[in-house]
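Our working data are protein records whose layout never changes between entries. The record below serves as our worked example for the rest of this section:
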Amino acid sequence: MRLRLFQHGVQAAFRAELAGRYGAALRHLGMARRQYRSMVPGNGSCEQETVAQTLAEREHEIVEALAHTLAATWKLDARSTRVLEHLIERLLDDPDAARPSSPSSRLLHGLERIVLEGRTEYYRLQPIVWLGSGGRRPLRLGLPFQGSLKALRALNAVRICLDQLPWSGAEVAYFSAPLKTLADLIAQRLRQQLQPRLGKLLDAAGFLPGDSRQRVARNVLQEELFTIILRRWHLRFTDLRDAVARNELRLPDPDWRELLLGDRLARFDRQASAVLPGVYQPGEFYLKGLQQLSAPLFGVSAGRAITRFLLFPFGVAFIGLEALNYLLNLLPMTQPVQLVHPGSVLGVGAGLVVLLHTKQGRKAITTVGLGCRWLFTEFLYQRLVRWPHWGRAARWLQHPLVRKISRYLLEPLLIGLVFALPLIGIVGSLGRDTDGLPVFLVVFGFILGGLLRNSPMGRRLLDGVITRFVTFWRRVHHTLIVGLVRWVIDLFGWAMHGIEQGLHRVDEAVSHHRDEGPGMTAVKVIIGPVWRAISYGIHFYAAVLIEPQINPIKHFPVVMVADKLMLPFFPALTVALLALLEPVPGLISVPLATVTVLLSPGLFGFLAWELNENWKLYRANHPDRTQPAHFGPEGETLYALLRPGFHSGALPKAFAELRAVIGLENEHQHSYPQRLRQVEARLSEILESLQAFATRELGFALAERWRTAGYERAEVVVVKLEAATASLDLRVALYPLGREGATGEPVWLEFRFDLQADGLQGEIDLGGLVESLGAGERTWLEAEATYFLERAGTGR
């Protein structure tokens, strides 16, 4: 049996090596070596030692072949190649390397995939397009970027597997260096391939900058689209729309031709599929159609007036009154409430117009907001906090008798009620007999509270819970509502991106490559069109019907009101949909029609949300002042990265997690390399986003200014980036003649950002050879630095 397994392993390794699957060959050969060791005794014969040595030599040759093939495919340097050889040998020493599900085995498989993807040519057959064009369009559509993108995805999986290995931090850092170099090389190849095409696409679509500010904005837009491709391995119409809505180069008011034939987004969408095959996914008809239909209302001055003064206030009045009416009727009242009638809608809508569009109304809203803030923050919260520090109250609370009563009676009773009251409520809601149970639960809770308050183990547990609660409260008490809303939005956005990524992976799987056999090609030719139709339907149901129903931000109040208004029409809609699906068997048509009708109110939540996003597309719908840039890993501004809150303060959270891991290591005298690497990766991601923000916004602007002034070789380099919990230091060096031609000290720009009580504050300091600059050069230099502060969101 062992001999048979040994022979099978050697043969499988030989076949895998011939196919270029070096990772699989190493796994099979490693299994064969282990089987051989188990068959022969420890002091084997000379012939047996020769076999073992031959297997070891063959394994070393395959290791070299994998590392050198990887280096030749992606142009790796010699040092990185040697480190990769050491990494592969280190993996083969792991006993779990033969197990397919282990991190070592998956890492080997990932390295193999990087090699194969770098040499694979993908294409897509499009027989319908070919027939429809009369043979003028090609039957085979080449996908020149798919191999590099799939290699980058495999590399990301390799780096994740490396982090999961129980190795020391020094080992992981040593082996991560060539992987980081490899990621940079793949990204650089994609940049050389994609950036020129993205630039031509944006030019052809009409995203043409008019001045220096717009050139910077255009560069930011192009870089953001490229970054999205690197992160998600594809680009969608909604990604383009959201990037334009965040960018300073937004859409101008469309003319009549654009209203009929499509604006810049439509032109980009029409051309991108051919320019970026396999990367750009054209927008669904309901997304593009909705954006096109909303253009007259959002992009034209008359339409904006109708939207602002008629559709929005009176629509909000109707939906709000319907939602309030629905909630009030849920209460146990004797008489039903009817708030919705023409007079109430007109009255509330007119009130909203006055509040939103008159100076007195906006002043009233500001006054009410400040009053609520004073009531809840200063009067209630701060006064209650200060009361125990008042002299008489402090002396009374410190009295020995009061302290004993508090410690042995009040505090245990309070802790007991926290445990007992929810249980009493649950039992009561079930309709069970609760005679004597509340007293028992209160007494039991009091005893439990006494143990927690007055025993050493209980105090440690209680202190830990209180500490975590205080930390949580400090994060949420500033931005609780806004933070919760953002958290819910990001959560469902992450879920939708996951669905899109899954659909895209299947779409990649049904694409063709030149090494596949004719049988597989025929299968994919049949499955491909069917899958695209299924994928379209899945995305429609997930994005349009399901997600607005389960997303509370979109469900309340729009979907809730739509549910109430559409409920009487559900039977008629079901019958009509069944008539449309009559050719489909009843086993499929009936459940499909029922589910579709039940989920149909989600369409209104989808429309409301998409119209809100489309409103942001147009330049005239934004304030005239410079708006803060969104550049963080989750699209945060610099203020959101620094400000502690429920769903903000990513930088202080990362530092807090880093301190917690270090403290845990010091306390237990034991290292936690995986947790430490995860925290360091999050911190590194934030710092990389800060670096990219400075390079795109400031570096590009300064370099363009210098080149306009005649310095063609001008370079701008971010030389220092130091972040703390609530501050950021940034230093930028300007080389008018380039770094190679620099003969002296460059011009320095130093920025310091500090989070203070009233917002984010920024400072600028010029240094170096500033005296060598002319008056005009220094003026525009200061102007660009000031604009960068505005884009960072200072002065909030």
